[in-house]
Design brief:
The chain is 48% helix and 10% strand. The protein is mostly helical. The protein has a three-stranded antiparallel sheet. A three-stranded antiparallel sheet has the order 12-13-14, with no helix packed on it.
Length: 587
């Protein structure tokens, strides 16, 4: 009978079973109710404390949640990417459309301003950088693009001008940096493609005239050079300081010239600059945009990846690549710089999770002390950095060489994965800034900060500062810049993702629609977010040397200037990767 009772208690469906499902059983009335009430009070107290904690720390918790959701949203899927079918064959119709655009620009310049440094397509005229005359900026900057596109007739006329008309005997002050990257770089790349001695002769003549710019106590070159007098000239606007980017973006050109001439002078001048910069490092690992040419130290000046800072970081990586990974010092400097940039400059926007780079600006307070303010501002110039980070990830952040296209997750170190993901994100952000009335990106974009009071019509996390009805700020213009399409080209070659070609074609179509002058050439836009567009009568030389060249390469097959064999200077002039024959002193 006892056994039967036990069986009933386990299987029965009477009042005992029903009561237990509601948390009450006979024989435990007052004690159980007391315990249950106590639990409710404890739970309520915990809930109230939690609500109070969230209220007191809402901003911090909101930031953590936002960062987590943004991180989830932007993570690059290596596995999915590696399964994508890749086709690097040329898109011939789009490639040929870019060639036609180049001819539209070049033939107008040749008709109206052949030999002048700059072109004004609306006024059908040219201009020079000094009253002493020009040095063929537009001609020399465009030659390797003609060679690349197979424009033989146009090339022959340009070559004839270089041989018969180009002269550097100009008693005027020219930018050391711009002259190096555009003219010296253009001559060197033309020589590489053609092996025509006229180009190396002109390149050596120009470089020899520029060497006195390096005659400073530290070896940091002055901002300008008088080519006829062969005298370096400080920039009066910079109080005798020199731009970090400008002094550190001469190295690819001068090192390649040494390899072609066996003259070590150029290499030594270039390398001395890098040694000074390496010794000037500051605790944060970042670099401000100005150096003192007398003592070799950084001045108290803004820190950014935009103007006067950008190509310093670009050439750290590219010097390592140019000499076939033999100069480990540049790998170390690059990796240290990327760690500092990631910590201090790379940020994510508040709502859309866009990766962008901020600036750090020094300010003097009432006590005269220097404080540093974070500014969520990104120049269009920074848009080179997305592709550069991706390239750096597979060259300095790989577990071995070669790396797959696209890279597999196990092929990258933790730093490589970090830089790859940030690079992909920056390219996407730059494309977001093309969401304007014209489909073109402004010169400068600002990003929203939590609780800021910025009034803007933009529905995005980024905006053009000061833009509005009847107001056209400098930030709103588009001057035919190449940086976004440069990153699209590199990203395409490293991934084979057709999205990059689609984005590039959209930019090309926007240029054709809004910048093209029917009588010939292309003009800049005063406000990318206003229709109809207001044009500025200027066609920058980098339209033909960079913007259209990178678009042409984007739609060409991957055997044209492969990234495994070439490195591009900051003006898109391709130089071959080589193993140096000389023992470098800075390694």
């Amino acid at each position: 009978m006892a056994e039967s009772s036990v069986r009933k208690r386990k299987t029965g469906k009477g009042s005992k079973g029903q009561a237990s499902r509601h948390g009450r059983t006979p024989g435990h009335s007052s004690g159980s109710r007391g315990d249950y009430g106590m639990l409710k009070m404890v739970a309520l107290a915990v809930l109230v404390s939690l609500v109070f904690f969230v209220y007191q720390n809402y901003g911090y918790i909101h930031t953590l949640v936002k960062a987590w959701t943004q991180r989830k949203r932007l993570i690059y899927d290596f596995n999915a990417a590696s399964k994508r079918e890749i086709d690097f064959s040329a898109d011939i119709p789009k490639r040929d459309a870019v060639v036609a655009a180049f001819k539209h620009a070049w033939l107008a310049y040749e008709r109206d301003a052949m030999g002048d440094d700059e072109y004004h397509p609306m006024g059908h005229s040219g201009s020079n950088l000094t009253s002493a005359g020009g040095i063929g900026y537009t001609v020399v900057d465009s030659i390797d693009t003609m060679l690349l596109m197979g424009l033989d007739e146009e090339y022959e006329r340009a070559r004839k001008w270089v041989a018969e008309e180009l002269s550097f005997e100009r008693d005027g002050n020219f930018s050391t940096f711009e002259t190096t990257i555009r003219v010296l770089g253009g001559l060197l790349s033309a020589f590489h493609v053609t092996k025509d001695a006229i180009y190396i002769e002109r390149a050596k003549d120009l470089a020899d005239r520029m060497m006195p710019a390096f005659d400073t106590p530290t070896g940091l070159p002055l901002s300008m050079i008088n080519l006829a007098e062969r005298v370096g000239v400080p920039d009066p606007d910079n109080r005798g300081l020199v731009s970090t980017a400008e002094v550190s973006t001469l190295q690819l050109e001068l090192k390649y010239l040494t390899m072609l001439t066996d003259d070590k002078t150029y290499w030594e001048k270039a390398e001395t600059v890098m040694k000074v910069i390496n010794n000037a490092k500051i605790a944060s690992g970042l670099s401000s945009i100005f150096l003192n040419a007398n003592d070799g130290k950084y001045s108290i000046s803004p820190i950014r990846l935009g103007s006067r800072g950008d190509s310093y970081y670009e050439y750290l990586l590219k010097q390592y690549i140019q000499t076939n990974h033999t100069e480990s010092v540049y790998r170390t400097m690059y990796k240290d710089a990327m760690a500092a940039v990631t910590t201090h400059l790379i940020r994510r926007s508040e709502n859309e999770g866009l990766i962008y780079t901020q600036e750090i600006v020094p300010e003097r307070n009432r006590e005269g002390k220097i404080t540093w303010r974070m500014v969520p501002k990104q120049d269009h110039l920074v848009c080179f950095f997305g592709g550069s980070l991706m390239l750096g990830a597979v060259r300095t952040g790989a577990t071995g060489q070669p790396v797959s296209i696209p890279p597999r997750v196990e092929e990258l170190t933790s730093d490589g994965k970090r830089d790859w993901i940030n690079g992909v994100g920056l390219v996407k952000t730059c494309m977001e800034t093309h969401k304007t009335a014209t489909g073109l990106s402004p010169e400068i974009a600002h990003f929203r900060m939590p609780d800021d009071e910025v009034q803007t019509q933009s529905q995005h996390d980024w905006f053009i500062k000061g833009a509005g009805p009847g107001n056209t700020p400098y930030d709103a213009r588009y001057i035919l810049r190449p940086e976004t399409v440069e990153s699209l080209f590199i990203a395409w070659r490293l991934t084979g993702d057709p999205q990059y070609r689609e984005w590039g074609w959209g930019i090309f179509e926007a240029i054709e629609k809004h910048c093209r002058i029917e009588s010939g050439g292309y003009a800049s836009i005063m406000n990318v977010d206003a229709l109809p567009v207001e044009l500025e009568d200027k066609m920058e030389t980098f339209l033909m040397s960079e913007t259209l060249k990178y678009l042409y390469l984007l739609f060409s097959d991957d055997t044209v200037l492969p990234l495994s064999k070439y490195v591009f200077n900051t003006e898109a002039h391709p130089f071959p990767i080589f193993t140096p024959a000389l023992q470098t002193g800075f390694s």
